[in-house]
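Summary for the lay section of the report: proteins are chains of building blocks that fold into shapes. Here we show the chain for D-inositol 3-phosphate glycosyltransferase and then a coded description of the shape we predicted for it.
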Amino acid sequence: MTNQTPSANTSAPADKPLCIVMGCDTFYPDINGAARFAERLAAGLVARGHDVHIVAPSKTHRKTGTFTENIEGADMTVHRWASWRWYPHDWLRFVLPWTAKARARKVLDAVKPDVVHFQSHIVIGRGLALEATKRNIRIVGTNHVMAENILDFATIPESWKDWFVRTSWKTASKVFRTASSVTTPTRKAADFLEYHSGLRGVIPVSCGIDATHYTADLEPRASNKVLFVGRLTTEKQIDVLLHAMTKLPADLNASLDIVGGGDQDHNLKTLSHKLGLDDRVRFHGRVSEDELLTFYTDASVWAMPSIAELQSIATMEAMASGLPVVCANAMALPHLVHDGENGYLFEPSDADDLAEKLLLVLGATPERYLAMQQESLEGVKVHDINRTIETFERLYRGQTP
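The coded shape description reads as follows.
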């Protein structure tokens, strides 16, 4: 158990559909791990008969109110709060903090949920948690955020950054202590949250994926395609991957597909050109779901150089597509990469080591390559989305996960 003050309402009957309010500071149409997790969890809960209400920023400043939206194939109620674009970031929108409590009061009074599950403690989640506490509503909190990740967009002087991180974690601790259960995607991420917040008993619950959605091609590859999918931001360290591409043998004819958008898009394209990679690196931007699935199936190896992953849904998607994975030995990525089995870990920020590990995959014998593919498919099974949904259902009812 955590050392938070738990909500005092009693456990809901195991067979009773629940009314759930889920607070998300980022949600569709945003494209990131936290948003994708919330969308898939909400859709899965709807499919199991629960009444799910999402609270999220408006898509535009004027598009506010309560709507029925189809998310991941499921119709659910979405309460869109007025939000403003944060222009240092390429897509982030935020709700004015001083409006959150009043807006939360209106939602909770109208919906009267059995449980509030906040996916972020920053604005919407904080407002809902404070107001749910007053109403004795059970609260579950999930952390997807490292305070350090926000620094690139905080536009504050360098000398203030240590203060910003300390203050952010202090605020996070206060909000998470309102919850009866606190979760985060991996044990490493749980340890990280406990260390910085002072919480205890944080529960690791995988974000989960539906592996049946992905297609693995177990035939030998005719070309050597490296794949990265994700936001083009500083902490992803895609520049390290570009430098690694210059170190691969020319006769390997390796290419790199980069799928996703972000504030570093221009800088990375400029770097790719300076490194002479115009004919080997392709930037595809954001693509449709069908196109994304094709990229996963057709690739030869997955590369994730990020140093700030609390889990990495994209890496799990690559594994479900039967790809050997090469990832930085940082944060939670070692939970997914079993070094030497389904791929390799490399020293963070080390382009030489990354190139060496990519070469181990791309230069493997057909038998060795197939073995890595099969290990990825086997390793992703423990991250089945249905297990994740069942765990949260138990937490929502006040039961042991």
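Put simply, here is one thing we learned. The two ends are 11 Å apart (CA to CA).
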